[in-house]
Amino acid sequence: MRTTYRSATNKQYWTDRWAGISADGAVEHLDGYPLKYAELAMTSGRGRILEAGCGAGRVLRYYHDRGHEIIGMDFIELAIEKLKQADASLRVVVGDITNLEFPDEHFRYVFAFGLYHNLEHGLDKAIAETHRVLEKGGRVCASFRADNVQTRLTDWLARVRAKRPAGRGKGLHFHKLNLTRSEFVAAFSKAGFQVEQVFPVENMPIFYKFALFRAASHKVFNENLARKEGYRLSWLGNLLQSMLMWLAPDQFCNIYVLIAQKCS
Fold first, then answer.
1. How far apart are alpha carbons 6 and 118 in whole angstroms?
2. How many domains would you assign to the chain?
């Protein structure tokens, strides 16, 4: 398990990030991350959903708009307030994944996209809490930052641009965890989940970091657009990224997406 450090605390990073964009509309990128994997997890039809770490709300609003019973939760109060202002009918709460204020077996599904790797401490407790609030037979669909060539490159680029030293260093704070596939699976298995599938996924391809390789409508970075449509590449960017994912998907994904079931 590798740790990444930055100049801002994790909570300050996310507060600043959500402050810089408006609340999401419903995601439109239906054949990619994250919606493709949420749909794969929902094998037993409708049921109560918790989106833990709902952020700006793209997944929450997709399912809410289609009549699903879904609650969004995030530890950044600003994100929750923006969602309430955008749509007062949304059910959203400020919460802590390591100490959920929901009863046992309350949800059929838990979606946790990009959540668990934000925990410097308490990863096992967070996954145990996820297990507790799921019904027997319920499923979790979660993504986690991969520890591989791509994320090491992107972390290195971020350090170079910010002129930061490697490691923790003076004035640096915890930013995220990075796990290998086996570490990710082991954490959920330890909590009593039966891991069904793990996918190497390119949420933001490394080539998207460079405007040259982005689709024409994405040359000027717009986070709301990228979150709605997916991080779209030009034909050249798609070709290069597809080659990397064909050659070594576990090294050139930037996240793993896991689907696991609560069996007992």
1. 13
2. 1
